[in-house]
Structures are given as structure tokens and as C-alpha cells.
Amino acid sequence: MRGIVNTPCSHCPLRDVAIFKQQQKRELQLIESLRGDQIVRPMGAVLIAEGAAQTALYTLFAGWAFRYKTLTDGRRQILNFLLPGDFIGLQQKVADGATHGVEALTEVWLCPFPRDAVWELHRQAPELGYDITWLAAHEESLVDNNLLSVGRRSAKERLATLLMLLFKRAAALLPPEQRQRVPFPLTQQHMADALGLSLAHTHRTLRELERLGLHHIEDGLLSLPNPRALARVADVWGDGVPPERPLI
Amino acid sequence: MRGIVNTPCSHCPLRDVAIFKQQQKRELQLIESLRGDQIVRPMGAVLIAEGAAQTALYTLFAGWAFRYKTLTDGRRQILNFLLPGDFIGLQQKVADGATHGVEALTEVWLCPFPRDAVWELHRQAPELGYDITWLAAHEESLVDNNLLSVGRRSAKERLATLLMLLFKRAAALLPPEQRQRVPFPLTQQHMADALGLSLAHTHRTLRELERLGLHHIEDGLLSLPNPRALARVADVWGDGVPPERPLI
DNA sequence: CGAAATGTTGACTATATTCAAGGCAAGTGG
DNA sequence: CCACTTGCCTTGAATATAGTCAACATTTCG
To answer: Distance in angstroms, CA of B135 to C1' of C20?
Structure first.
């Protein structure tokens, strides 16, 4: 993957993935008219700097990223991970500047929108405005889950929960036949920072889960040999089909 | 406070508080037309049960509440606290049911809205749709902050942060001359559950902060004798005037 | 090939939890 | 008015979970 590709939104391959709801033609045209040329950024790039004043908006088209906050002495907390289809930059609207940073976990492809696109979408298409509210509320529910983990789960339970939920999200983006092993670009440091653990303890706990046959990571791919048992450790439920989600 | 009072939105006393932005007459009328009769619920009441299927929407008119999640063995994590002006129930839209509970921390007064009000507001008044997105993003930023605390701050720093931020929010709702001592209805158990600490440790840490002259709680009122020092412990910055916020 | 990032491991320490008791104040019912 | 309950706060001792520090191994990549 390199260079710039500008697939029109009406032919966007992401939109064919089952978890995304179909947009009406009018709405799709509006999105396309606001969208700028796709951008590619390398692994590790800071997409939005913590504290940046004016930042752009993006839909993550390909690759993974994460939102994070840091304390002045460098301690870092990852808030949640961003996968293709996630919308980046909503938060800036509420605080005159970014209260968190966003960093690319892999090479990422972004569909940029001007800063006032959030307002334009609301104004010109209530349906899309509603979709944006939906995305904001959905991202909050991810953070809620992480907070529950970090606040009340043991290290083992936290890792189990993280692996479980990321596996589900990653799998949902793949064709059914490829869902045994899903892309998993996190380092142990990322997991530690997401779960509020030290690197050493994350490593030990991860090894324990692997010894129990609950997960396996190899070549950047994650597989869960015994999802039931892992879900039991994680205390994570809700097997139902996740609701369709909007894609801006 | 008892009985039912139905101040029309156009004469709502909350709207006179400086932190809330003024709504246009048309928007105000729409809000008023969707709103039901105000409801009073006692301290401790469950406003939204965890896992409830269909839940109402409310604007918190008076009193405090909190959002929480629990694990099956009873461990509880408080996600964030709700103060007058906060909107309750947005999350339900994204998951077909509540993924978290909401409980009243004091007696609360609620302005109820029908379940489809979120959509109606978007459809009939883009400006209000935008406001709802704003509220969702803003609540997420509160959760982000708590996650940073719970994941990466020490017990002492966590308590300092919680006291600092709640003090600011509570003070902003009061007339300037009453901002020395603000209402603070949390028990130590609430603080423990919000910060991912045990009750015993929360107590010990709280005593230490008090001994250092960093806070004082008496008769349900919180005062911060040395806000600068407390902010330093908390590693919390941003003194600027907080942006005006919408009130639905 | 060498440098840098990531993963691995052990020994030691610290922060925070658990468990167990008891105190105090407010409310309730006889 | 008093006994009793209930909820919240307080405290100490023992324990456990997770962090820190310090190496070293392995992989990746220019």
C-alpha cells in the first residue's frame, strides 16, 4: 500500500463490510463532497498531538490507531483503539483543542474532513448528524468498558477482556472465512498502557494466559483457541449480533 | 423540595447559570414540546438499570447522579458523575439497551424526554442535534480523564484529581459568592468505586490529603484550602474559562 | 552488520487489598 | 426516651498483586 488512492465514497470497499449500515445516495454524496483526498501515514505517526489547537477530522479507512493521554512525567494511558470505520477528532469540538492524542499503530489511511464538517453534516443531513452522535456515544461505551477493566478487573481479567473485545472488533471487519486469526498489531507496551499495568507484569500475565491455551499471538496475528473460556475469565458477555453501525 | 414542579424551559432557572449557552427561541420551544412533566426521585434510586431494554432520556435538572458498570461478582466501577445540566441516556441508542446503570446520588429532579427525542431533535433542529453530539463528546472526555486517573495515577493523585475536578464542576453551578464550599454528596465508597480503589485505602489516602491541608469535607460540603497545591498533586492543568455548554 | 525496538526473566520492593473490629450518628419502633 | 438497626467512617495487621530495576535475548530493519 502506497501512494494516494481516492476511491469515491460510493465505491468505498469498507462500505461493503456487513457491520456498516448503508447510507442513502443523498447522504453519501454529501459525505463525498466534504471529504478531502485520502492521506497515508506511517506506523507511529502522531495523527493528532495532545493539546493541539486546531485539528482535522478523519475517518479511519485502513489500519489501526489509538487515542491516549499522558501525564507530565510521561506516564501514558491508552483510552481506546481505533479500527477501520472509526471517526477521529470529534472530541476537539468540546474543548477548543485536543485533550488527547491519536497515534497510528500501523500504517493508516485516512479520509480527511474539514474542521466544520461535523456542523455541516448536522445542518445538511439530520440523518448523518444522528450518525455522528451515535459514533460519539459508541466510542464512549468503549472507554466505559476499558475503565471497568482498569478499575475493577485483575491483570489476568484485563488482558482477557482486551484480547476478547479486540478480537471481536477485528474479526467483524474480515470476511467470515478469515476470522480464525485476526490482525493484532499491538506490542506488549501498548497493552500495558491500555490496561494500566507495567510492561513486566503484562508480559507475565500474557504468558500465563497463553499457557492456559486462551490465546496465541504470532506474526502479528491473534487467535483465540478457546473463546468460551476466555470470555469466562474476562467476565464479558453479550454474544448477540452487534448492531449495524454508521460509516461517515 | 417535593411535589412536581413544571417550570417551562423558557423560565428554567438552570438556564440562567453562566456556563450554559442561550438557546434560540425556536429551539427552546422544540425542547419544551418534547419534554414531559418533571420527575423527582429519592437518593439511591436506580434511574436506569444496567441492562435495561428500553429506557427513557432525561436532563438532570437538580441533584447529582452517577453512571456505573458492575461485574457479575458485584465489583462496581463508577464511570462518571452527573451534575445538573447533564443529559442522561444517550448511550442506550448504540447498543439496544443500557450497557451501564445510572443511580441517584442525592434526591434528583429530572426532565424526561421520549426515547426518540434524540432523533427528533436532530431532525427538527440541526443546532440541537449538534448540541447533543457535543454533550456526548463532552461526557466521553470526562470518562477519558477518569481512565487516565485509574490507569496511571497513584491513589493520592487520583483522589486529588477527583476532588479538583468535581469541585470545579460543582462551583461553576453556584453563584460566585458561594464557591468556597460546594455540595459534595459522595461517600468514601463512591470515591473508591470511581477510582478503582478499596474503601480502606481510599479512607487512608483521603486522611493524608486532609492532613496536608489539601481538602476538607464537612456536612456534605467540600472546600479546597490550597487549590494550587492540590492541582500540583493531581497533575491537572487548564485554568482557562471552560467553554459554554449546551443545555437540552 | 549494527542499532533499535521488542520480548523475556529474576530478585526485590511497594502500593494497595483483604479481613476483622469497632466507633459514631441518625433514624426507627416500642 | 431508650434499645436497636443501619450506614458510614476509622483503624490495624497480614497478605497479595503488581511495580521497579536490571539484565539479557531476540527480532527487525536500515
So the answer is: 45
> Which pLDDT tens digit goes with each residue over A51-86?
888 788 999 999 999 999 999 999 999 999 999 999
Query: What pLDDT is recorded for position A55?
Result: 83
Least confident of A98-112, A190-204, B3-17: B3-17
Closest nucleotide (CA of B152 to C1')? D19
pLDDT category at B21 given cuts 50, 70, 90 is very high
Distance CA A128, CA A121 (A): 6
Q: What is the mean pLDDT of chain B?
A: 94
Fold (topology level) of B147-234: Arc Repressor Mutant, subunit A (1.10.10)
Nearest to A136 among B72, B140, B147 (CB): B140
**DSSP label of A24:** P
Assess contact for B197 and A152: CB atoms under 8 A: no
- What gap in Å lies between CA A126 and CA A1, rounded to an integer? 35
Q: What is the 3-state secondary structure (H, E, C) of A137-204?
A: HHHHHHHHHHHHHHHHCCHHHHHHHHHHHHHHHHHHCCCHHHCCCEECCCCHHHHHHHHCCCHHHHHH
Residues in chain A within 8 Å Cβ distance of B119? 130
Domain ranges of chain B: 9-128, 147-234
CA distance A160 to B63: 38
CB atoms B196 and A151 under 8 Å? yes
CATH 1.10.10.10 fits A154-234, yes or no: yes
A22 touches strand D (CB under 7 A): no
| CATH number, span B9-128 | 2.60.120.10
pLDDT at A172: 96
- Per-residue model confidence (pLDDT) at position A53: 84
Residue B139 to chain A, least CA–CA distance (Å): 8
Contacts of A177 by beta carbon, 8 Å cutoff, 6+ apart: none
* Second CATH level (architecture) for the domain A9-146: Sandwich (2.60)
